[in-house]
Write a structure and sequence with these properties.
single chain, alpha/beta, Rossmann fold, 2 domains, seven-stranded mixed β-sheet, 13 helices, 16 strands, disordered N terminus
């Protein structure tokens, strides 16, 4: 009898496992997983993205949610670490049973997470990462709304002559994002006959950049392309001023938060240029001015740091893209969302979002074509250079 009961328990346990719904299926709410760096070296940016995502969640729920169900964001801290990024993604998929993710800010974190998306067949909307590898490695569960470094360089190309660049140097964070940006911008500049000087890298946690800046100063270049997070940009600007570096400084990647630089770097930020994907000081210049103004107004209403708008819009656009896919799919399961993402057309704060195919045939990733702005810090304020004004 004991043996029979043991066997029966095992049999019913198996039946129970078979009855477990797929991620998102039959849920009372529609869960969306978010993995961002809420602590660690790029925590400011990750928190801004999360705040933008929360605005989208609130606005969706105020309008009745998605498919009549409340939207529930589950936001996890990847601690600015690729190992933690993988752990958060697995936790969201396996324990929280989310049918879709948004993340993971850094290219390094996103690349680390991507095998888990393949393993569990769950799509992820990439809101920030720019490494070309993300959409060319053959992962059909990836849909990126941020530009690649190559796209960013192409957008910058028509303006290079206006900066009178003769010889360019590079200082990049030593990861997939930083090295990839330096590669793409160097290629673009070389095509225009511009000489490339020294290419320096730095650890994401580095505080003293004097050695790299000394080499850059000695190179004889006139323009420095800088790729890293806002925290480290602040250090570079201050230390460049201390070393009397004469280079024009242009940051890439869209994560410079110019208002934060003005506040924290002060006079050292004066004259620097920054490539962004949303310019909240000039919402009228956005592709959809009314939407941009509404988003900025809501951000201010919540008392969020205005400087964070250049990152926060990513979280909003990412969640709204996911919401559009779930609505189009008519249900919130992973495979249906993946299929629907190919057909979405979303009006984002950054501009229109729709996906083209990138990567190996049959295993393509989705890549949108984002908007690009260039701003300058002039007289302690953020300004649009003349060539960017409509």
């Amino acid at each position: 009898m004991k043996r029979w009961l043991t066997g029966a328990v095992s049999w019913f346990a198996c039946l129970g496992l078979l009855a477990v719904p797929l991620p998102g299926e039959g849920a009372e709410t529609i869960k969306i997983g978010v993995t961002q760096p809420l602590t660690g070296v790029v925590a400011a940016s990750g928190n801004y993205v999360a705040q933008g995502a929360r605005i989208a969640e609130s606005l969706l729920n105020a309008k009745g949610g998605i498919l009549g169900k409340k939207v529930e964001l589950i936001v996890e801290d990847n601690k600015s670490n690729p190992v933690e990024a993988v752990a958060t993604a697995e936790k969201l998929i396996v324990r929280d049973k989310v049918p879709v993710l948004m993340g993971a800010w850094s290219s390094t974190y996103t690349l680390a997470v991507m095998p888990k998306l393949m393993e569990y067949s769950v799509p992820m909307v990439v809101e920030t990462s720019s490494s070309g590898k993300i959409t060319t490695s053959g992962n059909p569960w990836i849909f990126r709304i941020s530009p690649t470094s190559a796209m960013e360089a192409v957008a910058m190309a028509p303006h290079v002559k206006k900066f009178n660049v003769k010889k360019a140097d590079f200082l990049s964070v030593n990861n997939d994002w930083g090295r990839g940006a330096a590669d793409e911008f160097a290629k673009m500049l070389q095509k225009q006959g511009i000489r490339i000087g020294t290419r320096e890298t730095m650890d994401a946690k580095a505080q003293d950049l004097s050695a790299q800046l000394a080499k850059i100063k000695a190179s004889g270049g006139d323009t420095l392309f800088l790729t890293t997070g806002v925290e480290q940009i602040t250090l570079v600007l201050k230390q460049a001023k201390e070393q009397r570096l004469a280079h024009k400084i242009i940051t890439t990647g869209g994560s410079s938060s110019p208002d934060q630089l003005i506040e924290q770097a002060g006079a050292a930020a004066e004259g620097s240029y920054h490539i962004l994907f949303f310019a909240p000081w000039f919402p009228e210049a956005a592709p959809y001015p009314a939407l941009a103004k509404e988003f900025v107004a809501e951000w201010k209403k919540r008392g969020y740091n205005f400087a964070g708008l250049t990152e926060g819009f990513r979280g909003y656009d990412g969640i709204m893209t996911i919401a559009a896919a779930i609505t189009k799919a008519g249900k919130a399961d992973a495979k249906s969302i993946q299929k629907a993402l190919w057909d979405v057309q979303v009006q984002g704060v950054n501009g229109p979002i729709k996906f083209m195919k990138e990567g190996p045939k049959g295993r393509e990733s989705g890549q949108s074509q984002p908007n690009v702005f260039i701003v300058q810090i002039a007289q302690g304020k953020v300004a649009l250079p003349g060539f960017m004004k409509k």
